[in-house]
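Example A, followed by Example B.
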Amino acid sequence: MRHHLGVEYRKLSGSLAILLAILAPALPAVMALLAVSTSDRLMTWQIIYFQFALPIWVTFLMPMAIAAFATLLGQIEYRANGWESMFALPVHKYSIFLAKMFVGISGAVGMMVLMLVLTAIGASGGIALSGNVPPDNFPWMQLLDKTPMILAASAPLVVIQMWVAMRFANFVVPLASGITGTMVAIAVAMTNTGKADWFPWVMPFRALSNNQSPSAALLALLAATGLTVAATLDLSRATLR
């Protein structure tokens, strides 16, 4: 398993996935810089993160970035018939799929953390340009509380996107599933309905907007584990080429 992870991470060096994983988290930072530097009202850190950067990230940018990242990971194998050569190795198929799942999940975690850091840098640049210093302290504890909840809530989404990206050779399929799920999440956020909280693309938004208990995060992780098992069984029996 460790060997497979090393191989998968080395493959990223020649993929657009790394560029995507940097550019997507940078977008909220750029928007924060522009918003803080041009706003007529005094921006607080609470507004910057919890009314601006994080809602945009969990509702739109994160699910779209995960969909694109998973698609790029899947296309690494499909472009060069890599599945056949990988399956010829004297290893269990499930270890190959689990390694790719882990790379997808670690990519989602990395993008989330990078977004938080870059947003702080971007907002600080806006503060330097405008001279309007936020009157509140940086929300370290709130971010440390919310970030694990959001990441846990997004785990089922990541697994589904990786499953679809590895299952279908056509890159349009995982991208279409990501776009569809994101549009549903935006519609739910706009209507504020509570009838779709179970939907994987809605769960990260709910983790941000609600004070969810650790049990909700545990349920999301259990769901992701079940989906991973189902995906591994399905992919092991499928003909990938």
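Example B, a separate protein, is given below in the same form.
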Amino acid sequence: MPDARVEVAVSDAPASTHGRDEIAILLAPHPGGSARPVSRSASGGELSRVMLAIEVVIAATDPVPTFVFDEVDAGIGGAAAIEVGRRLGRLARSAQVIAVTHLAQVAAFATNHLSVVKSNDGTVTSSSVRRLEGADREAEMARLLSGLTDSDAALTHARELLDTARGAA
């Protein structure tokens, strides 16, 4: 969201235990658009990215021990996904970050990459979690990129993303 504009509107409110101000975060996601309350106008993906940006800024002054993001990358790809991954990586310098993603561009910036797999034997549904490292991580990243488990081009791209993420650290 390179051209987005965020505003904070403060207005008077009836006195309560929460104070006398009403605060609204306004977002104009595109040039020329008017800023509207995020809570009513932002898509799920826009809302997630605005929250990520706010949390990155706040974490520098008021650290929270753990952040959980469930598909903060919904509806994006390419350069935007790399930037979300980079911002999550930056946030992870001062807090624990748990991010659920299906994008290799985001996963590349993880310090620990876990694969969660759900299975069903016809009677019981269970989930397993496995830490991915080395060739296993590259293979999973390639699968996320291409949907294929044996693509040389996807493996090359996965390695490139991992190198990019390491260079950003």
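On Example B: DSSP finds six helices and seven strands in the chain.
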